[in-house]
Amino acid sequence: MEDDTEHIIYNMRIPEYIMQVSMQQSSDCLSAKMLRDPHINPPKLPTLVLVNSKSGGQRGQQFLSPCRVLLTPAQVVDLNEVQPETLLRRVLGGLDRLCKEGDHIAAAVNENLRIIVAGGDGTIGWVLGTLANMKLSHTPPVAPIPFGTGNNFHFSFGWGRKNVGTDLNSVRSLLIDVAKARVLPIDSWLATMKVPVASKETLEHITMPQPMHALDLPSSPNNKDNMQIFGGRFWNYFSLGMDAQVAFAFHQERQNYPKSFKSQLKNQSTYGMIGCAQGWYCVRCFHPASRSINYFGKIEYAKHDEDWQELALSPNIRSIIFLNLPSFSGGFDPWGHPSHGISEKRSLTEPQIDDGILEIVGFRDGWHGLSLLFPGGHGTRLAQAHRIRLEISSVNHTYMRMDGEPWLQPLPEKDSLTTMEISHGGCGFVLATERSIVKTSKSSEQNPQNKK
């Protein structure tokens, strides 16, 4: 058994000469022939390890060392030292150069590469988004290793809610799980937001989360409508309203006092207390100005090849979630499992992560959210959609959250209209264990790369 384990881990090691050539970014591959051991065989499960060392109450830092001992130091990278885009372009570009030189070992690594991403939900989305933006002909699958507060993405694919152990034996066991995991496709979703601004004003000063970035400035010659345009990609969820407000307050506290957020259990407790202070549980006593979604927002949606229709919202809905995975707020499923009768009456389909459909769920308050703790609990099932359009007005700011990353979004004057459109953005690939709770189409499981 021990021999089998060592054999598997041996096949996860990326030959050092490949990493050296990739990081050198040299177009001359003569050095590769000099560095390569002529007796090595192509690894069957080459695995690149990307670690957010600041995640998990700084425990991500402790994860680096055992990975480097079991694999090789060069294939284990701290994302706080190099950005995912820079790293992946170097590694995948280096593999491509070697392949063109006829290097059969590099070709095997390129074909079979897997990527471990150790961090929270935001880190996973960051790396998946980087891979999607690279538009690769063969996209490597990602194994999400939990080192966050919610770990919703990780739980969906069977990697657990709790942050993983960082001792040598725990990491060895984890690597075996990665080697045995199956590849599943997952939809990504593109969000494009247009914010009107004054002629010489921009919103570049906004601290946007990793998934979002400025696409066009009002000063651009192609921008005739004086719009600040932001764009981003999400894989799990996008939310608007009070839940995002609470997440933003928690995020600010953690940024200001990082030493107080080293325990996952304490983090979750702090999150609950902040939620109460923000008025998520007791709006009538605190923050009476907190508004329902339909006070400042209009939402339209469309199914596949159907016309737009307005989403009917109850005035007591204060948070709305556009959901791709069955895991939110610590691993709970806000959509739940509607009965056959309800599904038939409302033409609802079973959620699948590669069906090109988002589930739209609303929550009244924190107490409504606590219903997820009980069997059969769920949010308000509003609709299923292939395309979504939001119009926001009447407020000078709102709170948004994308794949675990919250932000405060300033808005223009009341008579101006901010819009956001959400549309399908293609597929990525994720490694799932046998404990995964997600569902996919049978055809995609047979050949997931065909779903791109």
UniProtKB/TrEMBL annotation:
Lineage: Eukaryota, Viridiplantae, Streptophyta, Embryophyta, Tracheophyta
Domain DAGKc: 42-195
GO MF annotation: an example: ATP-dependent diacylglycerol kinase activity
The protein, known as: Diacylglycerol kinase
InterPro entries: ATP-NAD_kinase_N (IPR017438), DGK (IPR037607), Diacylglycerol_kin_accessory (IPR000756), Diacylglycerol_kinase_cat_dom (IPR001206), NAD/diacylglycerol_kinase_sf (IPR016064)
Keywords, comma-separated and alphabetical: ATP-binding, Kinase, Nucleotide-binding, Transferase
UniProt similarity note: Belongs to the eukaryotic diacylglycerol kinase family.
Its EC number(s): 2.7.1.107
UniProt-listed GO biological process terms: phospholipase C-activating G protein-coupled receptor signaling pathway
Reactions the enzyme catalyzes: a 1,2-diacyl-sn-glycerol + ATP = a 1,2-diacyl-sn-glycero-3-phosphate + ADP + H(+)
SMART domains given in the database record: DAGKa, DAGKc
Pfam families from the UniProt entry: DAGK_acc, DAGK_cat
EC top class, as a word: transferase
Gene Ontology, cellular component aspect: membrane
